[in-house]
Amino acid sequence: MSQVDVVVDTSGKAAVGGKVLLGVDKVSKHFGTGASKVTALEDAMFDILDNEFFTLLGPSGCGKTTIIRIIAGFEAPSEGRIMLDGRDIGHEPPFKRPVNTMFQSYALFPHLNVRQNIAYGLEMLRWKPADIKRRVDEVLDLVQMPAFADRRTNQMSGGQQQRIALARALAPRPRLLLLDEPLSALDLKLRKAMQTELKRLQRETKLTFVMVTHDQEEALALSDRIAVINKGSVLQVATPEEIYARPRTRFVADFIGEANLLSGSSLGLAPDVTVSIRPEQITVGMAPAADRREVKARVVALTFLGADTLLEATFRDAHIRARVRGALSGVTVGDEVSLSWALASEWILKS
Amino acid sequence: MSNKPFDWRATPGLGGFSLIVFLFLYAPLLVIVIYSFNVGRQATVWEGFSFDWYARVFSNRDMGVALRNSLIVAAASMALSTTLAVTAALSMRRGASGAGGKLTLGLILLPLVVPEIVVAVATLVFFSGIGLKLGLGNLIIAHTVFCVPFAFLPIQARLADMGSAVEDAGRDLYSDEWQVFRRVTLPLLMPAILSGAMLAFASSLDDFLISMLLADAGQTTLPVYIYGMLRLGVSPEVNAVSTLLLGSSVLIVLVALRLQRMSKAK
Amino acid sequence: MSSASRSTALLRAPVLLTMILFMVLPMGVAVVYSFLTNGAYGGVKLPFTTAAYLKLLVQEDLDGKLGFSPAYLIILWRSVLLAGLTVIISIIIGLPLAWYIACAAPAKRGRLLLLVTLPFWINTLIRTYCWVLILRDEGLVNQSLRRMGLIDGHIQFLYNDVAILLGMVYTYLPFMVLPIFAVLERLNGDIIEASHDLYADRWTTFRRMVWPIAMPGTIAGSLLVFAPALGSFLAPDLLGGGKRLMIGSLIQLQFSSSRNWPFGSALATVVSIGILLALFLVVRKNFDKVLGR
Questions:
Q1: Which chains sit next to A, with 3 or more Cβ pairs under 8 A?
Q2: What domains lie within chain C, and their CATH numbers?
Q3: What is the interface pTM, i.e. ipTM, of the complex?
Q4: Alpha carbon of A212: minimum distance to chain B alpha carbons (Å)
């Protein structure tokens, strides 16, 4: 049904019996026909579990936004099903799905104040006025903006608007909360603060968050599991640790963190093999050992970054980057140095 | 649940409704056009295809005079109103700034909110009161006033889009404001100016009420002449000349809008 | 004065002068004329009097006695009513149409806008006349009905208020569509999606989102329709047969066959004041919304 080997192997949740909430079952999306046909998504297949922070990660245009729009109901899948509670909701209109979205543009209703914005979904669900009022206050507390209830939405900063948008999507307690690049419009400091906020909110509300982002650091920091997507294909679905240590394809290895991708032939291995080694796993000038691989490379650049030093060297036409703690003494540009790493840290990728 | 994909942009039934509305807007005009080619005298009983009524129109001397008057008035009001509109738009480049700005904008747009009959009456009594008897000149003055907003709007829109960057660059090249205007601003603005001018021309050509109230004998404009014909009864000649008038208005406006779109693309 | 503001003032002067001299001043003169006495051969003469305004309310009957006559007030009232109905019908037709155009793909949108705007540039006389052709006794509708065997003689479509209303809606519809479209075009589509996302169906979203957000455009459009509709001349004249008078045709009469310039000016002044009042009330209540343009 899903990529079982990945999910069960690496997802701690599944191992402890995490319940599947939503299943994306062989979903494809095409636009246009014939010669001008564009495939946004090809056979996407994965599960989203209950009470997890799930992230769709990939570069612009990879199809990640298409996936959540399909889950939300603003696009219909060309093929495949979206399974919720054993039912295919793929063709139901958005107002019939227990899924709420936090839009990238926030999309706060301009003619309503904050309270009315947050209450909107609850009114549509025919909650009693007293319950609505209570819930709105509750949710405003949750996002730490209790004083804003009667403000108009056009007088607030970006960060404030975003929290209200979040509150509005959280209020109806949806089965899934979709977040479309929620932090991309914020400056760095605010971004970091909001990242912590989002994680906290997910833990407190125990709702399933599905976030879309192109920022791999953000994905690694916040997610319980990540789906890496490129050019319409879902490449890998796993925990952050798993994705970082054991990327399934070149693209994943390259996209997540930094990676040195060395061809098998340059290391005396089979030519169709790629070896991935992370810069921080490389040591400079260590004595050779049986369980380590050593290469001699010529230093082309040394950059002192404060906490680390970045060393760039060339080796047999390949470019290697190594990251060492602190400053690096006794090495200058042009030197030949010995770079080595534990054989166990190598990760082999088939092309 | 229906299996049609949900698209909030596609409200079911709205397309059909809109089609009906457009038919409602255009079909009646088509009636005039079609029956202008009717052979028979009866304006709406179809008897065969013919250009007869058009021939009648072209040989109608009185109508020719009315047409000439219309064209003179339209050309003159176009020139005057467009000039005024250009100066006004230039003065409001940075938005309608200050109290004077809002006032000017309000005055320019005033003809759009005041009913034609009120404008016609006011102009009539004013000219009569001060004894202004310039013949077609009276009409030209009155037309200029209500043509200003139509000339103004496209020019103002274009100026707003343009921003000041190009002119600032121009100031580096030319030392004197007039040169900047002539060599930089004016060429860029020209399509919008032409567009505004054509819209002003079309408005003047189409005007009926003001022309009717102000016109003395010998100053009849084409729409007023047509109205006179209508008073005597419906006839295919009316259909023919209406079709011609209709056609020219449409042509002028299409060209004007095409000019506007061209200038926007820049 | 800085040179910048001097040149601004210089540039503004011609148009200001023209509009004040040839529009505002004449309207003032009309007000003055409304307080003068009717001249023998048209025109006006002294002394000043309120006779013109009194004429609205009071008439001399056959015995020379003055009594309250509602005749003119009825005409005024009917004009307001018909103009108001024109506004309402224009909203009912225009708002969905504006929404349809705003939702259309950008390429299609331009063409649709053109189609809506084009009739505006066609002579009002022609646009009113075509309905005469269609609705008159020997007109298109009656002929078709006769040919289909549904009627024998003819149905009287013209010369009543409905025909006038039809003509006015037909003429002024673009004035309603364009301002509403201008507002809706700027609407962020995400807002509509957010509404659906929060469990509102299409009708509810229209009621709670589209309608309120379009309101500034609807108000602007209402003013742009109400003002000319109130002073409309051709619709009551051609479609109402000149017997169903509205203010516009009544005023025109005073400057042609009835020859009562003060009365005509008084009527024009009353119309102006009415519209200015409506403008003032609306703008005051919705100042920032209307200017949101």
A1: B, C
A2: 71-290 (1.10.3720.10)
A3: 0.86
A4: 22
